[in-house]
Specification:
alpha/beta; 8-stranded parallel β-barrel; 6-stranded antiparallel β-sheet; 13 helices; globular
């Protein structure tokens, strides 16, 4: 008989359980740390063609502040008939043949901000839908497109692809099969992209009557890492009446069912109701406005008749569009009636027969608070080059982007101008606490008599200042209680931040 020595397995079992518990705790802490560090996304599109704009509007890679964004989108690349990625502007994008090497310089911004992700945006409005539709309808072409996207990212150092098919089942796509094929495409893309550690995102239509046609929202939401919802271009020169570019809520002029969809709130709730997880929705915020030429300058309310787009700006040079940088520069030399829509929580502006619906610091703050309240994934902007990226308007460089980034990182809102809901004032300053305006010009021997153009402090009262628009021509402003005019920023600022020598 063989004598067996039996030892208790209890201590070993306890040790194993302890190690498992420690491991699980470490994993939990690691996941929590990862979730905490990721935070809200700040997605920034760049229209790279802005390098060709004149004067102060010229925007090069070196103008990008890589610390403002978590994700930078290079717009745009196209798609070839054989379903490979197309470089639209080789001279700009590549280094060959003495090219400008935009891609290499763009991706190199990660050396300044190692946390930054750079993605190649493929598509856009001008690329249309037909070639995407053709590719998505063929298993062979889908495979070719997906693997060429991987090779393109590896070749140039991009961290992923932003799919900007505008739009499945619309324009020159196939309305019968695109929606299903689009979902199939993105599911196959995600399977392959995960093997290479690449991100997969998309810029998507926002309003129900468009997004409902193009996307199987429940399916595609599972495949994309996140979705940049383009909640702008709600109104524009293609319409016979004026409307705000990106209103937060429905307005009184939105009388039909379709018009009722044309706002941020309705669009986001449509996506949520159709299965999109809130943390995957990134709220689009435009850094530009849509302008109109009124049919009758005397009728300038929201919904008034128009005869076309507004006068083109000096940089974007497109009728019906004004970059925020173009408009804030106009305010330095032109008198505009700045108004605020209480219903839509967005500003608009009127000058003679020109009408502009845009976003300012106040409306941006409201939109960021909106996405925080709904626990959305973050904010996206189109696009960096139309913010005041040079800081020529007195609010520092990138005033809108800086505010978005700050608020998404727990910052407090900056002081803002409160334009009247029904304005009769001739001019209102740029960003600062709410001001009251005296529309009568200062006396002929005042500060404007010396030929100053722009903002001038009052010589005796720090709570007052002038906006001079010509020799002996200007308007006097009074800051609200608790604020003083800050000559360094050209805004009314909190009194403890202003050195008043009077």
């Amino acid at each position: 008989m063989v004598k067996r020595t039996v030892t208790s397995s209890r201590p070993v079992l306890l040790l194993v359980l302890l190690l498992i518990a420690v491991g699980l705790a470490d994993d939990t802490m690691s996941n929590k740390a990862s979730d905490s560090s990721e935070g809200k996304k700040v997605v920034c599109y760049v229209g790279t063609w802005a390098v060709y704009r004149p004067g102060q509007g010229r925007f090069d890679i070196e103008h990008i502040d890589p610390l403002l964004c978590t994700h930078l989108m290079y717009g745009f690349f196209g798609i070839n008939e054989d379903a490979t990625v197309r470089v639209i502007d080789p001279y700009l994008d590549l280094e060959e043949n003495w090219g400008r090497g935009h891609i290499k310089r763009f991706v190199a911004l990660k050396s300044v901000n190692p946390q930054l992700k750079t993605l190649a945006a493929i598509g856009g409005w001008n690329e249309g839908s037909r070639k995407f539709s053709k590719m998505a309808a063929s298993a062979e072409l889908r495979k070719r497109f997906i693997h060429d996207c991987v090779a393109f990212c590896q070749r140039h150092g991009f961290d992923g692809i932003d799919l900007d098919w505008e739009y499945p089942a619309q324009r020159d796509g196939d309305p019968l099969i695109d929606r299903e094929n689009h979902a199939q495409l993105v599911e196959e893309m995600r399977q392959v992209f995960d093997q290479y550690g690449l991100l997969m995102t998309a810029a998507v239509a926002s309003v129900e009557f468009s997004a409902g046609v193009s996307y199987d929202i429940t399916r595609v939401s599972k495949s994309f890492h996140f979705l940049n919802v383009m909640v702008y271009d709600m109104h524009g020169a293609w319409e016979s009446y004026c409307g705000i570019n990106a209103p937060l809520y429905r307005g009184p002029a939105d009388t039909t069912d379709q018009q009722a969809q044309l706002n941020v709130n309705a669009s986001i709730h449509f996506w949520l109701a159709n299965g999109a997880p809130p943390e995957k929705l990134v709220l689009g915020i435009p850094l530009y406005g849509r302008s109109f030429t009124l049919a009758n300058a005397a009728n300038s309310q929201i919904g008034a008749a128009v005869v076309g787009g507004g006068t083109a700006g000096p940089y974007t040079r497109e009728p019906g569009v004004l970059g925020y940088n173009e408009f804030c520069e106009k305010l330095q030399t032109e008198s505009w009636d700045l108004r605020w829509s209480d219903e839509q929580q967005t500003p608009y502006a009127v000058r003679n027969n020109q009408w502009l619906g845009y976003d300012d610091l106040r409306s941006v703050q409201l939109k960021v608070q909106y996405l925080l309240d709904l626990k959305l994934g973050g904010a996206m902007v189109w696009s960096l080059e139309t913010d005041d990226f040079r800081g020529v308007c007195g609010g520092g460089k990138y005033p809108l982007m800086t505010e978005i980034r700050s608020l998404l990182n727990g910052g407090t809102p900056s002081p803002t101008t409160t334009a009247p809901s029904t304005s009769t004032s001739t001019s209102v300053t740029s960003e600062g606490p709410g001001v009251s305006v005296t529309t009568s010009p200062p006396s002929g021997d005042g500060p404007c008599a010396e030929g100053h153009i722009g903002f001038v402090p009052h010589p005796e009262d720090c709570s007052r200042y002038y906006m001079c628009v010509g020799v002996q021509t200007g308007f006097e402003f009074s800051c609200p209680a608790g604020t003083l005019f800050d000559p360094n920023l050209n805004v009314c600022n909190w009194s403890d931040k202003v050195n008043c020598e009077h």
